[in-house]
Amino acid sequence: MFADIPVDVGITYEGERIRKPAMHVELGGPDVKEKFELLRVKKPEEVEDGKVEIIGPDVDQIAEGSKIPFGVYIEVAGKELEEDMEGVMERRIHDFSNWIQGYMHLNQRDTIWLRMDKKAVKKGLNLKVVGKVLCRLYKSELPIIEKIQITFITDPEEVKKRYEEARQVYEKRDARVRGMTDEEVDVFYGCTLCQSFAPSHVCVITPQRYANCGAISWLDGRAAAKVDPKGPIFAIPKGECLDEWAGEWSGANKVVAEKSLGEVTRVKLYSAFDCPHTSCGCFECTTFYVPECDGLGIVHRDFKGVTPTGLTFGAIADSTAGGRQVPGFHGLSFEYMRSKKFLRADGGWERIIWMPKEVKERMKDYIPAELYDKIATEEDAKTVEELKTFLEAHNHPVVSKWKKEEVAAPAAPAEAVAPAAAMPQAVTPTAPQMAATPVATLPEMVVPAGGISFIFKNVKIYAEKLIIRRSKEGK
Hints:
With about 475 residues, the chain is of the alpha/beta class. Helices cover about 25% and strands about 15% of the residues. It has 2 domains: about 10-170, Bifunctional carbon monoxide dehydrogenase/acetyl-coa synthase(codh/acs), Chain M, domain 3; about 185-405 and about 425-435, 3-Layer(aba) Sandwich (Bifunctional carbon monoxide dehydrogenase/acetyl-coa synthase(codh/acs), Chain M, domain 5), CATH 3.40.1470.10. The chain starts with about 20 loop residues before the first strand and ends in a 58-residue tail after the last helix.
């Protein structure tokens, strides 16, 4: 795309993964606390167009295999730009960065995770070059931007200082939409920025359901659709309300079906069980179902430990991501957890039984006071048995449901509950009562008798080796 750039640049590289053995350096990521990306709208006289500055060493001066704190600070100017547009323009760092061969960008805001490939660095790729490419892509793809300058920060002390400033900006943005409700608007917004990694994923953004990534609010979606009407963020007419309590609208279903190429046809925005919203991989947190307790745990990507189910965030995320609808496994943002519509079809906070202490403290003002001490953390329960004991000792609402099930009539045979031909579906509650909340069964992989089908859409695969073996009969 650019003759003076040492590596190729183009949309074909979206979705490229750089594995650990191939990386020269990791910028941010799960092993580093301080990392961020931030875009601010400035006055024209405050921006030097095309300037790329690096505070700290560039990647060619950093030891191979290093993992370092990292910050990206972009300043833009233009007579039509408004502060409300900052969030959506900032989110475009994700796709523009992934257009660069040998440069991988994941996540957003203060959870960014980037890697630079060894081969690309040897060809001459560095942050100075990345900045030059981003400047050009921003101005060509978003002509509303008249001037742009970019600063990369690799100096740990400077990253730490600006990290706190960035988080204050994020909080200010998020607070703007908290007083709005889904009922008072006629239009939702959709986002397909993550389809390079999850082809069937479509984010439906409402005033009370933030994007999974935590970076795009309903107001951000409105601004994005205005700036780039044909872009990856677009309006979704609500249409007819099919299920007010669970959050299902005909307009959202129609657009999701179109944008997912028919892979997903129904979405209920306030449920993790019944037609749940799909997840890409950029989500800030994810729920996971604990069948022994009939409750939901929540884990965020910064949690390094193991949940009571024995799974790490990474393992749970693998079950959640990819644009699939997996009952009980549901990507979400911190901001959605602050919403009054938070998983209300499943019982809301009354269905949450475990989360890391860091998340619990962060959500302290939004978890109902009577439930706060009843939700376990990694300090209270490390196994399912310990979790059950904790929930009983603290009289968590799910415990009363166990007791009702103990005195209920025997359940029907398993074959009648979960037919092998279909993904388990939960029962939608008709009223906001805990006893009526849906119960999920864990998904199973079903292999058709005729073999295995692989369906690839907009995928570019790099593999050193692929081995397919026929399993022994009956295995």
